[in-house]
Amino acid sequence: MRALIEDDLGNERLERLLAGAGHQLRTPLNSVLGFTEILLMGLPGPLNEEQRRQLRNVRSGARLLETTIDNLLDLVRIESGTLNVRLELVDPGGAGLGLHVSRRLADLLGADIAVESAPGRGSTFSLILPRKDR
Amino acid sequence: MAQVLVVDDTDHALDLLGYLLRDRGHIAMFARNGEEAVASALKMRPDLILMDLHMPLMDGYEALAAIRGSARNGTCPILALTAFGEVGERERAHAAGFDGYFSKQITPETFMDQLEAFLGGDDRRGAP
What we know:
The complex is a heterodimer. By secondary structure, chain A is mainly alpha-helical. Chain A has helices at 2-6, 11-40, 49-80, 83-90, 95-108; strands at 112-118, 122-128.
């Protein structure tokens, strides 16, 4: 991936590639999570306690994989510098979503986000980054 | 009870949404691309349409325009279903005239409540 990024690949092309990879990885995972949930809801029929326990294991494994995929894609964006473009596009979609994405990215960086807010005055968001000592 | 047309080019999505709809007593009808969706919408006159945006032959945007353009289905709520990670897709869907938007990364326990909100409090619900 590093070679791909340094090989003069434009940000737009990289973003398309990441969106495509995300889609390819998420589509089968949506099936795993969706049908596991349907089984746990008992829609196709009742389950015994052991079956429920095993399906909950499938679900927690799939959720972990989901988080790993999201984090991996975000990390590639951070490494390649396409991150800023993405945040600008996400932000008009709603402050809640923007903050959620920022929060996750801050976690990835080992950073923290602080918010100061006063009604009618506005809000100040601060990103506190750890310093890398060499 | 409502008739819901689900439009998607993947079998798993149709199967999953069909399960959830039938569990709530709704009738699920399926189409696999925009052309089939337009034909079904005109023939079956569903109460609600859930439509994937990216499909072969005719995509969700073109199908929406065709259905909206027909007098028979002018007011049926049409909700966009879209895959993960399409930045700006929600805005495009709203601008195109979709009544709502769902990510395919659905949470089955809450999805149907959100979907049924679009069916409104009309007398179809709870009818025998």
